[in-house]
Structures are given as structure tokens and as C-alpha cells.
Amino acid sequence: YLSACGCGKKTVVTMSKEFCKGLLQSEELYKYILETSVYPRQPEALKELRNITCNHPEAVMATAPDAGQLMGMLLNLLNAKKTIEVGVFTGYSLLLTALTIPEDGKKANEGGFDFAFVDADKENYWNYHERLMRLIKVGGIVVYDNTLWGGTVAKPETSTSEWRRGGRKAILELNQKLSADQRVQISHAVLGDGITICRRLY
């Protein structure tokens, strides 16, 4: 399968499919999407960082390039200047954000941020959400990564590796809470390991 960083290399370590960032069933289809729509438009700095990240032992933790491409579009649509990143790993999503926002982008106070990306400890996602609802302006967007947790959210707990069960439980709870949260409009996108896009309504 393709690694999270989308480098197109098969891992040399024996791992199950649940670790694959791309949830598409076809490796060929995912490769087609990356090579046709993502890589040709990717800035050189992002390509270099992606290639470096592919050699990292925890490369599966990186933001998937197709999810990153959507984030870039969201940043442009918002004309985002004030952003927050919670969890950056090797910095792919942070670099993408820095390359996308205008040069006059800057820090902001409560209620003044345009965009946030969260890819950190899953058990605290809801705590981050509550805080971000105060930091993000009305009409702003929060994107949560890994919200399909390798597809395990739709499988019995017994079929999930022991070490992934805590994250699975946290993601299931987050997904239910986001679905019921009237403060946000949501869209659950099957990109990378699943991303949930939340637009603050009030």
C-alpha cells in the first residue's frame, strides 16, 4: 500500500492495511489521483519535505498529500491569514499553510482565527474543539485529521489492534459529538485517513 506521505514506496516493515493513510481500496487509483491531480501542483518545498518524511520510521503519521491539497484550497477560499496548527509531526501541513496564506498573515486573538488544523493526540480532540470554538471566528474552518482511524470506526473493536483501540474510541466519540454540535456545519471527507471539516456557524 501507499504510505501516509504518499511517496509511492511500499513499506519494508510488515504492517496491516489498517495503517494505510489512503482509505481507497485500490493502490492504483490512489496513485492515479496523486500523480494526476496532487503532485503536478505541489510546490517544490512540499515535495522535498514529503520525500524526506517518507524515510521517517513514523511516516504513516504524516498528512496525506491529497488531504493537504484540499486544505490548501480551503485556505484560499477563506483567504485565511490567521491560522492555528495543533500537532505538526514533520511539518508538512504547517509548511503547506505557510506557503498558502498571504504574506500579511499573522497571529490573532480569541475569535480572530480563520483556520485551524488538528492532528494531535486523539484523546484530546474534543478538548481542542471546545477551545477552537472560542478561537475561530464565525465562518472560520477547523479540520480534524484521522477521523476514520484507518477504517476501524466502522469495524468491531475486536478486529482493531490493541494499541489502536484507545484512539478508535476517542475518534468514535469525537465523530458523534461533532455530528450533534449545532455550532458547526460539518463534512466528513474520505481523504487520507479521513478528515472532518467544521465550519463555525455561531
Automatic annotation (TrEMBL):
Listed SUPFAM superfamilies: S-adenosyl-L-methionine-dependent methyltransferases
Cofactor: a divalent metal cation
InterPro entries with a match to the protein in the record: Cation-dep_OMT (IPR050362), SAM-dependent_MTases_sf (IPR029063), SAM_O-MeTrfase (IPR002935)
Gene Ontology terms: biological process: methylation
Keyword list, A-Z: Methyltransferase, S-adenosyl-L-methionine, Transferase
Alphabetical list of PROSITE patterns matching this protein: SAM_OMT_I (PS51682)
MF terms (GO), sorted A to Z: O-methyltransferase activity; S-adenosylmethionine-dependent methyltransferase activity
UniProt record similarity statement: Belongs to the class I-like SAM-binding methyltransferase superfamily. Cation-dependent O-methyltransferase family.
Name this protein carries in UniProt: Caffeoyl-CoA O-methyltransferase
